[in-house]
Amino acid sequence: MSRPKASVVVPTLNAGPDFARTLGAVFSQQAPFAFEVLVLDSGSTDGTAELAERSGATVHRTPASAFDHGATRDLGLSLSKGDYVALLVQDAVPLDDRWLAAMVEDLEADPTVAGVYGRQVPHPKSGPLARVLVTDAPTSSPERREQTAGGPQRYPALPPRERHALALFDNVSSCLRRPAWEEIPFGRTGFGEDLRWGKRAVEVGHKLVYEPRSAVVHSHERGPLYNLRRHYAEGRLLLDLFDLAPVPNLFTLLLNVLLASAHLLRRLLLDEGAGPRALPLALGYAVPSQLGAYLATKRNRLPARLDAFLGKGV
């Protein structure tokens, strides 16, 4: 094959038999250019790497202990050959055969665009809470967005929430311009490599695009403990990057739990028909997620063991 214009990089670890759907959808992409598929496998023992090789992907194996959200993706980009490099998680399935081309079109149309990220839709068989959470997220909007501060001098002067909104980026499904990544690699980071990269890209004057024409099927069924830990990690990230504390005190914690529960309850009852399950589902998400964000503001006063416990597994 001639040098590909685009590359698709997928980090994996024991992706399971459903990974065949992801690979099939990726290799079925209709694009007016050549592309390659590179799988970075972190020590799978369930045949993930072999499945990828049989499907036609190039597989690069690394030990599980070497995995890092930022550094592993940097490795994949360094091994890839395309001018544009799409990043995809192992359980995200392109919705149609234009997933890749739609992102590349944005990058080719505007040289100031450093990266594009796409829409996420819930699995058809996912539970009602998972469907609500996916469709509530910024990555579910049908409206295309261009994110730019209008120059590197303007970004630092913006309020924290505006800086956060402009930096949104999501490596569940994204595509980077190679020179932009060479200028701004992800770097080693245990969590939030995509938002960190988005912030740095906008800070130096690049543009980011949310492109809903590029969509993947992606949702999770998570429990309260995971939601506590994830929102603790996200809360720490927002403080580090934007000095933004969505839940700064106990009053806000209680208020946010009430507001989030009411919102989820309404969505679960009216949109999802969850019936008697609606209230426990709403509270089971609202309480740990808001508590995690609140505890993040107290991280410097938490016992080291609790901090380690909360920061594990996301």
Structure, described:
The chain contains twelve helices and nine strands. It is of the alpha/beta class. Strands 1, 2, 3, 4, 5, 6, 7, 8 and 9 form a nine-stranded mixed β-sheet that branches. Helix 6 (160-167) crosses helix 8 (193-203), helix 9 (224-242) runs parallel beside helix 11 (278-296) and helix 10 packs antiparallel against helix 11. The mean pLDDT is 96.
Which tags fit this structure?
314 residues, alpha/beta, Spore Coat Polysaccharide Biosynthesis Protein SpsA, Chain A, 2 domains, nine-stranded mixed sheet, 17% strand, globular
Question: Which helices and strands, and how do they pair?
Answer:
Elements: E1 6-12, H1 19-27, E2 35-41, H2 48-55, E3 58-61, H3 69-79, E4 84-88, E5 93-94, H4 99-109, E6 113-121, H5 128-136, E7 145-147, H6 160-167, E8 173-177, H7 178-183, H8 193-203, E9 207-217, H9 224-242, H10 250-271, H11 278-296, H12 304-310
Parallel strand pairs: 1-2, 1-4, 2-3, 6-9
Antiparallel strand pairs: 4-8, 5-9, 6-8, 7-9
Helix pairs in contact: 1-2, 6-8, 9-11, 10-11
